[in-house]
Amino acid sequence: MAETMAAAGKQKRPAPQKKSVGRGFRIVKGDMDGPLFAIVIALLAIGLTMMFSASYPAAIEDGKSGTFYAMRQLAFAGIGFVMMIVFALLCNYRIFEKLYISGTVFLVALILLVLVLFIGDDLGTFATRWLYIPFTSITYQPSEVMKLALILFFSLLISRNAHRMSSFRYGVIPYLGILGVLSVLMLFQPHISGTIIILAIGVVLMLVGGCRFWHLATLGLAGLAVVLVFLMTSDKFDYIGERFLAMQDPFNPEYMQDQTWQTSQSLIAIGSGGFFGLGLGASRQKYQYLPEAQNDFVFAILCEECGFVGAATVILLFCLLIVRGFYIASKAPDRLGRLIAVGITVHIGIQALLNIAVVSNMIPNTGISLPFFSYGGTALIMQLAEMGVLLNISRQSSLE
Q1: Concatenated DSSP letters of 294-354
Q2: What separation, in Å, do the N-terminal and C-terminal C-alpha atoms of the chain show?
Q3: For residue range 12-30, what is the model confidence (pLDDT) as tens digits?
Q4: Fewest 10 Å CB contacts: which of 96, 257, 282, 337?
């Protein structure tokens, strides 16, 4: 009797039941990954709280209500949350097996990247990265759309051509060609950090999909050499070398008034927080000392107000998200799901790593947002949509 009960306890839960709804579409009756959902909600809640704390001085300085940016971000979060639930519960990730869906999403994102070079807006920065929604004053970043579009398109192509990915002709050249075109479009904005993220996503998907490392390394190094020559010979990118020099001594008066003011104020904010922080809402650097405190440098305000404990908690949550994302990928029911899960996880992980590295002066300032934290509707909506796709994959995976 005891042996029978023990054997029954070891049985795996039954596979999710699938119900066909039209051609090529299925609604899956399975449980989404609870730990991943909880991590996303925790990051979103902390992010909204810190964005509100960091943004109200900037909103008042801009002549708006102190809650202006926070309420807009809350609206973006609401839209993103709805998209996450729709993708998680209603929209089976296998619809992206259709070339006309993944291919159309990629083509639209590519057209938007081209358009931003001609009719884009810099919103007062040195980079032209935004487009206006027609007949409105609402802007969005095509590069954020392209990140998800690239994940879906590459995952589809690689899963369809898995038997040829070990070939240099079919497993390397087409994909690096696409990445090369995207890199040129991104660099002309210019958007260095976005270029790095897109390249990282593409390369990781190629390697996971079966591309041979030495094939990729050979052509990749050649492409990198071409890009470096292009950057070194174009006056438009002189600022990159200047930023590398300035980051070595961010408090040098020669750099501080121009190149490293943001970085130096960020380091002051981080150092002021100590172990437990000054207290929620008690930051001093957000009062017009640290530019874009609600955007790229919201992590510095987190460090100042919540200290080492708060910063370590957020970093731990991102690490848990990455671990859970790769775990879901390892249990995905097919190659397409595995590749999409890896791409989404790499995107969030690389972007969080780069932002924290910029804020702490580990790398030069590249203008990159912190997922779920920084102000910006396009990024937040797309990131939550990605989490919905990842949760949908988890519903069809053999998780334990």
Answers
A1: TTTTHHHHHHHHHHHHHHHHHHHHHHHHHHHHHHHHHT-SSHHHHHHHHHHHHHHHHHHHH
A2: 25
A3: 444 444 443 334 445 556 7
A4: 257
